[in-house]
Design a protein that fits this description.
The structure is a homodimer of 359-residue chains. The first copy, chain A, has 359 residues and is an alpha/beta fold. Chain A has helices spanning 37-45, 63-69, 87-101, 119-134, 180-189, 203-213, 215-222, 233-240, 249-254, 275-281, 343-354, and strands spanning 2-7, 54-59, 78-81, 106-111, 115-116, 139-144, 154-161, 168-176, 192-202, 260-265, 269-270, 290-292, 295-299, 305-308, 314-318, 323-328, 331-336. In chain A, 30% of the residues lie in helices and 26% in strands. In chain A, the strands form four sheets. Chain A has a five-stranded mixed barrel with strand order 6-9-7-8-10. In chain A, α3 crosses α7 and α6 packs across α7.
Chain lengths: 359, 359
């Protein structure tokens, strides 16, 4: 049977204060559509995997938000990490859980806070991907054709195509966050794709890969065999999970395994990983401004993002170019978009100087 | 006996949204000192006029704010206008009220929302002013030596000095809001002073002047003779006041009367009539920024005013020069200070388009 694992434990500090630790990006109605990014992710996968086989992986503090936003998800499908250990331990646990429910099960891993605009292409890509990984011991990742030499993404280099399939390639190499020169080379070569963080495999294959390439993590979770998807799973995880090393699935497995493949797709993807990314995919007014939620009265503003949590708030602005205005509760940010990577450091400073309740 | 009339019915739309119709400028703790501008005005006059002879003139909707901010003021000293009719009808009523309590009474009229930094000079000016108006049938206004060719003020041209006094002059002319060229001529001539809206006279003299120069208003309030400062005053005013023509004391009396004098004073005065005025008298950080209330983390901001109603709010800003950032409840303004006169029109637009609860 096919399962879906939605990863929704991120804290989203890049969109502070619009996004908060108490309510990160994936739980926000980013586009004023009435659905949060998580809900949109859930809605999008429902045609491929039914609700009873969609598993939510998140930090304990977000359990109430998940229950509120996805009331159709049964309690046993919400897996709560007792500690933050990056993606590898989460995925290993999810694979163990799924294997306990169906030893032959396959799974797709989805980020909860990305945007996919081409839903039909996404569905087709996942269906083809499931067939591909169900046909052998293969680890598959989705690759997005790069549109710019972005230095914040991981890049996948494709190798030879796979006979009898279209759009599937053996992976030659992974490169995490290249510098700009290298990213430009990648872009012009035509061999490199962005790593969207969407993975498909059978539970059996990924568990085998963990045992081969990240035996320490595999050992932590092997000790729970017989308990997964049962009444003692939570107790076991609460004890064992914190002892797993913090690592990403890319470093732990994907960059080392020999049976890694990429499916190159065109699904209208954005990781919404920055104000710039949000700006690029959002509808804009005639002056290039993006308005999230608020009522804007602007003069002579251009290419500026207004992200205001209070839908009733009126913003009056003049003469701002390439800014982000982010206003939520006890914090207001007025910052040039091009410097947005500095906001993360400021959030840390604010936390240190003024306290947790600001972040 | 000496009385003081504090005018506190203004709506303060120039500082929107920091100042709101529901809580205008005079009721705000503008400087984070713990006292509102009204309270500062009250504190400042107490050495000259005791609380039982300080009269508050305001719009009905502000009565609760006055009771809250000035608990020492007795109910009979709060005069509530049933309608907005500018300053002339208010002052005529106040003079009638004072004359009923003491036919020989004199009075000083004070705006509630101005700043006076030199308290000692202010006290001396008022004591000399009271003596001056108690010595004859004289209408006195305080004149401030202009420091710039401001086009938003009224100017008083002094004439011959008064024998036996220092700093008192007969008034030659009043000019309301001159254009810039004229204001420059005024400034260089040395004969012109800003009209601070602070007036002194005996109740008898100002009532006589109303009968001579604004007989329509005088007639409205003459009909209440015998009722002022008594149990029927409020009923009478509620009926009669709305029929008084809307007019300023300057137009109604000061520009017409022959017995008008100016006392030139140096009292560290600011009308706080604009963000620019606020900026000029406020303490600034090393980059010239003024912070009202909020916690500011700024980079590369200069000569910018941050006026945030929520003292706990953190503002993160970069690269703003000569801006005002004003954030209160359901409205946020990010606007160049030099264009601030346009904010008033925007407030009207906001009111029309989105409703009263925004202003």
């Amino acid at each position: 049977m096919r399962y879906c694992v939605i990863m929704c434990g991120g804290v989203g500090s890049r969109f502070w204060p619009y996004s908060r630790e108490a309510c990160p990006k994936q739980f926000l109605d980013f586009f004023g559509s009435g659905r949060s990014l998580l809900q949109m992710t859930f809605d999008r996968i429902l045609d491929i995997v039914p609700a009873e086989r969609i598993i939510l992986l998140t930090n304990r503090r977000y359990a109430p938000l998940i229950r509120e936003q996805l009331p159709d998800i049964k309690e046993e499908n919400i897996l709560l990490e007792p500690a933050r250990r990056n993606t590898a331990p989460c995925i290993c646990w999810a694979a163990k859980h799924i294997a306990a429910r169906d030893p032959e099960g396959s799974m797709v891993v989805l980020p909860s806070d990305h945007l996919v605009l081409k839903e039909k292409a996404f569905h087709e890509a996942l269906l083809k991907g499931f067939e591909f990984v169900e046909g052998g011991d293969r680890l598959l990742t989705l690759g997005i054709r790069p549109s710019s030499p972005h230095t914040g993404y991981g890049y996948i280099q494709k190798s030879s195509p796979i006979d009898g399939t279209e759009g599937f390639y053996k992976v030659r190499s992974f490169t995490e966050k290249p510098d700009l020169e290298l990213a430009k080379v990648f872009l012009s070569s035509g061999e490199f794709y962005w790593n969207a963080g969407i993975f498909l495999w059978s539970a059996k294959s990924i568990l085998k890969a963990f045992r081969l390439y990240d035996p320490e993590t595999a050992a932590v979770f092997d000790r729970g065999d017989g308990l997964y998807a049962g009444s003692e799973e939570t107790d076991f995880i609460d004890r064992a999970f914190p002892s797993a090393p913090s690592n990403s699935i890319d470093y732990a497995v994907m960059e080392k395994a020999r049976n890694v493949y990429v499916e190159t797709v065109d699904i209208g993807w954005s990781d919404l990983g920055s104000w710039k990314a949000l700006y690029e995919i959002s509808p804009r007014d005639a002056d290039g401004n993006v308005t999230q939620n608020c009522r804007l009265i602007q003069q002579d503003c251009h290419d500026t993002v207004f992200a205001i949590s209070d839908r009733e708030k009126i913003v009056v602005a003049k003469g701002l170019n390439n800014y982000v205005i982010s206003d939520t509760g006890n914090a207001l940010v007025i910052y040039p978009i091009e410097d947005e990577q500095k906001i993360k450091q400021i959030v840390n400073d604010v936390k240190d100087r003024f306290g947790e309740h600001y972040v």
